[in-house]
Design brief:
The chain is built from 2 helices and 13 strands, in the order H-H-E-E-E-E-E-E-E-E-E-E-E-E-E. The protein is mainly beta. A 5-stranded antiparallel β-sheet has the order 4-3-2-9-7, with no helix packed on it.
């Protein structure tokens, strides 16, 4: 992977644009209408106002070059199949019934990706597992920070025998290569606590972004307005103690 260079975000100037995007010599003559600037391919979508007009003599603004890079930078997108459709919703009825779901993200810099491992289910039906990947391109350099987030409003409706919600929620988490970031929801029932339930008041959403520090400011891929999976997933786990015993074993 290559290390990108970016045009400043706030104190942007023609000389900065010239030297960053075209390898021009600092202090030499340059104009926004120059063809090599007009055709700059990697302007940042948060600032380029829909893209540069490549026709000479047409309107162009210096602000459209804020955060532009000399090579293409992409942090992928959150897949609509992550989590998978059955994730987060299950009802389990049986002796010592358990229900749970987990989302585990792991940064894998050697593969230029984030691994998303997830499972959902319970003791009576078993657990279903899936793995998805978020790939990124040219997200290198000393000032890069890979971040993930889970926004969640889950609440334990009935305590059950061992209901728990664990993980860091509603804030960005900086990821370290090879270190797992886990979000976990689980509830269970037994003869002392017949019913267990975890539900959310709003859908749970997951996000991933890459944050670069550029001239003291932050530059995000995807942009600060598109990094969040706005669809979200419900959390609805319930258990009822009774009936036959189950045979499912939670993956870990």
């Amino acid at each position: 992977m290559a290390t990108p260079n970016f045009v400043n975000i706030t104190n942007v100037g023609l000389d900065d644009i010239h030297t960053t995007l075209t390898s021009g010599t600092t202090g030499t003559q340059v104009a926004l209408d120059d063809s090599d600037l007009r055709t700059a391919s990697y302007t940042h979508p948060e600032f380029n106002d829909g893209g540069l007009n490549t026709t000479a003599g047409t309107e162009i603004a210096i602000g459209q070059f804020r955060g532009a890079s000399d090579i293409q930078v992409s942090a992928g997108s959150f897949s609509g199949t992550t989590p998978f459709s059955a994730w987060g919703t299950t009802s389990q009825i049986g002796l010592n019934a358990e229900a749970s779901c987990r989302m585990r993200w792991t940064l894998q810099t050697a593969n230029s990706r984030v691994k998303c491992y997830m499972y959902s289910g319970g003791t009576q039906t078993g657990w279903v597992e899936r793995t998805r990947y978020i790939n990124y391109v040219n997200c290198e350099g000393n000032s890069v920070d890979f971040q993930c987030r889970c926004d969640d409003d889950s609440e334990i409706i009935n305590a059950g025998a061992g209901s728990t919600i664990s993980g860091t929620f509603n804030s960005w988490i900086s990821m370290t290569n090879g270190v797992n970031v886990d979000w976990y929801w689980a509830t269970s029932s037994d003869s002392s606590n017949l019913v267990g339930s975890i539900e959310n008041t709003e859908f749970t959403t997951f996000s991933f972004r890459v944050r670069f520090t550029v001239g003291g400011d932050y530059l995000y891929f995807p942009t600060s307005t598109t990094s969040v999976d706005s669809t979200g997933k419900p959390i609805d786990l319930s258990t009822l103690h009774g009936g036959g015993s189950g045979g499912g074993i939670e993956p870990f």
